[in-house]
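Hi team,

Filling in the usual template for the complex we talked about on Friday. All components are listed, including any nucleic acid strands or ligand strings, so the model treats them as one assembly.

SUBMITTER: L.P.
PURPOSE: interface mapping
COMPONENTS: two
RESIDUES: 422
SEQUENCES:
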Amino acid sequence: MTDPPDTTPDRRPGGRTARVRAQVLDAVRAELTEGGHEGLTMEGVATRAGVHRATVYRRWRDVGGLLVDVIDAAGETDWQPPDTGSLRGDLTALNREIQESLVARPSFAVALMAASFHSEQAARAQTRLWADRYAQCEVIVERAAGRGELPGRHTDARSLLITATAPLYHRLMLLRVDPDPRLPERAAEAAVLAATAGAFTVHGESEVRSP
Amino acid sequence: MTDPPDTTPDRRPGGRTARVRAQVLDAVRAELTEGGHEGLTMEGVATRAGVHRATVYRRWRDVGGLLVDVIDAAGETDWQPPDTGSLRGDLTALNREIQESLVARPSFAVALMAASFHSEQAARAQTRLWADRYAQCEVIVERAAGRGELPGRHTDARSLLITATAPLYHRLMLLRVDPDPRLPERAAEAAVLAATAGAFTVHGESEVRSP
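RESULT (copied from the run log):
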């Protein structure tokens, strides 16, 4: 999680600002992962980051501000959805990534979701992140359609992706059952079979109107 | 939520005990629904219930004890899964119930889930409740199999039910999108199409071993 120490003098504008942000967000991730959002304090983050408390208060204001920024930062990484050559392969690979992030102990992903149940600010940031990630994943469905893997002219990509991925969150986060190593593939397979049977095919007017 | 006042003298053993529990749990539900679990206190519940604080402390010990009991009580109601005559109809009706409980504002169901992210005791009680509810719903799949709506000799009922219901929780609780009145039926339909295509059909050894 921690970037290598930067010993070069700042040349770019914002170099120091960016470095302080990286240090603080690394500290937020570590504190959240270890103690959940209930253990997150401005003081704890400043100490762990080795940054003046006044700087942390000035730039992030409160714990809600830290949560929002760490969630926003998660959306800034250059993550790309898997590209395996088949819809089933892509969804299985995506589900494996999701399962890994949820079963990690401690899990940064789970800590963020828990925080979003208790901070409106964090909830809004998390909602933006989810929306971005699902939008990024729509290319999986577009590629499948291009390969002729899907029936009809237009597929509701979001619904297909949610059908494939939701069972993982549901079982691991809400039902809290033990992770099943076959689940990523099985959930992907069920979504592919439903899609192939036309469950997400858009007909008529909505087809014309969809973006 | 509140039972009618009981003015008859207690005849059954435990009559008063049961009445005090009902009053206290009604108060817990009201406090949770209005203020979330963070606003839940032993004093607030005792005052609202009109029960001595000492009684509440003696019987429930702490807020965790109240949460566990209110979740356990949710599992004691004589809820029955819908029985509409078709798999698609049953799953749609089930999803409508789920959607209603999640979009209610304030929502007791959402307050309980939020609490379970912050209390290990509440999480365990919630996990038991989920397990019971999904076990109860397996009859939906058994009836569908009896009507010849499903392929193969044995269907993984739990996976089918989770595929049908998980998108509602995922969209409403995690993605926090606006509720779509067509979602209950669409999510049910996708699960039925996947099931019909064999997504949840159990083959080979696991068929023999399954209960």
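MY TAKE: Residues 120-146 of chain B form the longest helix (27 residues). Residues 20 and 121 of chain B are 22 Å apart (CA to CA).

Thanks, L.
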